[in-house]
């Protein structure tokens, strides 16, 4: 049964690698004018004196809805893999299994907020989409550095307007910051991305 579990995860990454990156590219090229917009959960934001009389609200588009489906496959996998780790190892986890377990728990916490977003700007969707490369090509070590660079870019961008005025995006940023711990554990323990436990 668990071989099927890993096979489904692998093939879902094969399926999503191109569509998820096309969404990232689309959201980068056709990004709306964020400087005159606010997130739907932002309350009482006053536009700048030289700007528009009021902000426009960032709305979901068809690409954001497709990206939510990609997020759901990850959430389902993280739940099932966490159950698998607990069933196989209990609380007797070695360094890489423990790192992966903590990574999945932190990712689930972050995913709870990310799935609620109306819109997935390119810098947020990049790190999530790039995860496909880490799963499909675990032997290419420099991909981890691209992933971390995307993660840093995403963390910085979340501190800018309009994301910094959104309570939801601040929750995403705070919970995503916790991911640094298991990512560092995976890196320093030389764990591979293939989940071969």
TrEMBL record:
Keywords: Membrane, Transmembrane, Transmembrane helix
TM region(s), chain numbering: 6-30, 69-86, 98-115, 122-148, 168-188
Protein name: TLC domain-containing protein
Species whose genome carries this gene: Euplotes crassus
Taxonomic path: Eukaryota, Sar, Alveolata, Ciliophora, Intramacronucleata
